[in-house]
Every structure is written in C-alpha cells, then in structure tokens.
Prior knowledge:
single chain, 339 residues, transmembrane, transmembrane helix, membrane, EDSA_1-like
Amino acid sequence: MNMRQTTIAAAVLTALTIGAASQAAASVYARSYLDISNLVILPVTFTGPGGTPVVNTTGVKVGNYTFSGQNTASLNNGPTAADTKVCSGIFGGATSCGASGNRLDPLVVNAAGSTTIQGENTFTFNGPGAGQYANADGKLYTASVAGDASTHTRNIAESELQTGTAAAAASVIDSITKFTFQFSTTAAGTLMIAFDAIQNMLASINDPAGAAHQATGTMNTELKISNDSNPADFVLYNPDGSATTGCVTVGTSFSCSEQLDPFSLNTSVATSTDGTSSALVNSGSFLTFIGLMGSGNYTFTLSEKKSTTLSRVPEPGIMSLLGIGLLGMGLAYRRKNNA
C-alpha cells in the first residue's frame, strides 16, 4: 500500500473510531407512565352533613361493559410489535374478562432489535443510558363495573436511541371500543368521578454526536359520558391541571363541576437540545361531579394513551469525513488498476 492509500485508510479508520465512540455515548430517550387507581363513578346525592356527597344508587342500573388494551412498539423503522386484548361482560353477570386483579392484560411488547427488554407487568424505568430499545406495557387490574371496589389501570411507554435514527412506543388502555359501560337512570342526578393518579414522564438528550434530535413523551386521558338517545349531547372531562377548564359540556343533558384537578393528564414532555431534559413527576387526587339533567340511557368511556417518539440524525461532519475517505480509497484503487 502506497503513502496515499495509507493516509486515506487512516482517515477512514479515524472517522469510524470517532463515530463509534460518539455514538456509544449518545442517548435520546423518552418515557410516559401513568397509574390510575381508586377510580370510582358513583351516583350521589348531597344530603350528608355540610352538603357532602352520599352514594345513592336508587334508580341507577349498569348494563354491558367492554374493556380493550393495545401495546405497540417499533425501533429504527423496523416491524411494529403489538398485542391487543378485548373482553366484555354484563354487570353482575357473565364476563369474558379475567378475575379481579387481572381483568385485562395485553402482553408487554419489545420492538425487534431492542437491547433492553421490558418484563411483563414490571413497569420499571430502564433509561436513560440503558441501551437501544422501544417497549410498551399496560394492564387493567380491577374494574368497578366488573364487581371490584374500584378501577385500577397502569401503562408505560419507553424508548431510547444510541446509534439508531428512530423509535416509537405506545401503550394504550383503549383501542376502538375503549373502557366502556352503559347505565340508565330513572331521574335526574349527579355522578361523582374520583381517582388517584401517579405520573412520571421524561424526555432527555445526551448526544454530542447528533446534528438533529427529538425526544417526546405524550399522555392523553379522557373521560366521556354521552346521552344514548342523543349522541350530540355529551360531557368531556380531560384533566388538565385546572379546576375550571378541564370539563366541557355539549348540548343540554349534562353539567360539570370540577373540584380537584391538581395536574394535567393531557400533556407532553419534549426536548431537541443536547444536554437538556424535560420531566413531569406528580401524584394526587382528582374529583369531579357530573350532573345528569334527566332520566335516560348513558354511555361512559375512559380513554388513556401513553406514547413516545424519538429521532436522531448523526453529525454530518463525521459522515462527510467518512464519505471523503471512502471516495479517496475508491480513486486510489482505480488509479492503481489503470497503472
């Protein structure tokens, strides 16, 4: 090998070495985790001391219910790993759902090529700095309409890039049919919706070798009650950290009064700058009263979704150096052949 070829080869080796070292230290990471527990939807009257709500199920009848869950994850534009479960039943009657503590449990999914594997129902935080992966898991432990004292859900989506270019994970406690049940009332009344929530979200970037990167974790939570005889009448409760803006009524069938809304369950964390992070860690209790203006048949729906999206573009200077080195080697080889 002549001097020119030796120099070019050394340049290529240097570029590869620098690129590999920089990529090994890189991390573009996001997670979104939510635990909702002690969720109850109860008819109440304000006849207790001081006007406190007292449960009153007179004239209220619960009917059918359906639960569904879906976990999906993909890494570097590879195939999407997914698992979906659906079950249904009749309040106080037959059900295809699991027993209390395991009402609905779609399997954890780990995207093809993941170097860190999330275990079934572990809900641990692997990163940042754990490897290159995308995983998602969700579970419905208990459901009040299936006979449990309250409803409990837990979901996580987590992904990280070190040398790759794209990752996405999503954990959804609803699909098309969602967490749904029907009920009827014989008179106007009030429903109390109360639950506890634990939130943990993080987006972070430590990637000096990246020219462009983005890490985003998102969370969406919606509770909806609609009038079956007039679907244009409904109330949407989207906890947003404000007791005045998270509940919206459409039509004339409902009223809404938020009492406790300590932090947003419809939010995101994001960063696109190396050496920075964005985090949300909260826990608290939520309480809202929904007024039903008359008798009728109604449908309640809980929708939850957690997701992450990542992107990473390697530093163009390193790639340019590598490209120049490879081009030089090709020209040197061609000249040798011509000679």
